Amino acid sequence: MSLGEFEFGDRIQLQDEKGRMISFTLTEGETFHTHKGFLKHDDIAGRKEGSILITSSGMKFQAFKPLLSDYVLGMKRGATIIYPKDLALIIGYGDIRPGMKVVEAGAGSGALSIALLNAVTESGSLASFELRDDFIRIAEKNVEDFFGKSPGNWKLIHNDFSSATSELSVHVDRVILDMLAPWDQIDVASAILRPGGVLIVYVATTTQLSRTAEKIKESSAFSEPMSFETLLRPWHHEGLAVRPEHSMNAHTGFLTIARRVGSDGVLARRRRPAKGAYSSEI
Predict the structure, then answer these.
(1) Is the pLDDT of residue 274 over 70?
(2) pLDDT higher than threshold 60 for residue 174
(3) Sign of CA dihedral 178, 179, 183, 189
(4) What is the pLDDT of residues 65-79, one digit of tens each?
(5) Residues 6+ positions from 149 with CB-CB distance below 8 Å
(6) 60, 11 in Cβ contact below 8 A?
(7) Are 161 and 271 in a shared domain?
């Protein structure tokens, strides 16, 4: 493989003069058509990333291989995807590194699967649990399109996450739950996580967040959970005209993170609950 050059089988992303992006797979003998001319795939192969490509009618495109964030936002969806800003936090705050054994439930459209496989590299492994046939097909296709093949270190399991204790033969380093009722699976997560391992739960609503956090605390298998959301505000900059954009990526979901404790149990946390925090106080 030539570094920085397009090859057949690569995913390619074209950006026009107005910033609009188009993505496709470079295929020998194929032609990309626009309303202003065409580009032959054979003429793109061998060109460097960042090249300017000109159609038969003079339309110009800047060509790159798509970044993970670009691919995720443009790929086919079944389930709602985890957005790039949350994917980055899962990888960063989860400290997900090469060589790790990671489990996710469920696979959805495959956005998180791609990010996790990127992070663990070929030296690690990922097991993804998914119940729905349609989501499995979409996730498989998206992962294969991104990597150009089905990764050999990826196991897509058509089953409920509750089967993880029998499906997996070793303890894992990280567990990520992206499901409707993750509080029902906290005990399963604790059973497959090694001491010191990290549990990450992604939910959309405050009700889900509350039930998940309380279940983690009640389990006595995890450290005090930390929960947060992230709001991404892009900025416009044109000369001295520097201001926030009119739209932003606000709430997408909450992340809750906790560490698997050892056989000594959880160190009791001194806390003074807020008045009315529990129903008996109302």
Answers:
(1) no
(2) yes
(3) negative
(4) 999 999 998 888 888
(5) none
(6) no
(7) yes
Stated as kind and residue range, the H or E segment containing 61 is strand 60-64
Q: Are residues 43 and 117 in the same domain?
A: no
- Domain span holding position 46: 11-66
Give the C-alpha separation, 264 to 282, whole Å: 34
Which stretches of 93-220 are assigned E, i.e. beta strand? 101-105, 125-129, 154-157, 172-177, 193-203
Kindly report whether the peptide bond that precedes residue 92 is cis, defined as omega within 30 degrees of 0: no
pLDDT above 70 (res 224): yes
Look at residue 1 and tell me if it is in a domain. Answer: no
DSSP-assigned letter for residue 205 = S
265: Cβ contacts below 8 Å, ≥ 6 apart: 220
To the nearest whole number, what is the mean pLDDT of the chain? 92
Residues 166 and 62 in one domain: no
- The structure tokens 């990922």 sit at 126
Residue 1 has pLDDT above 50, yes or no: no
Structure tokens at 167: 């499906």
Closest CA relative to residue 125, chosen from 82, 162, 157, 173: 173
For the entire predicted model, the pTM comes to: 0.86
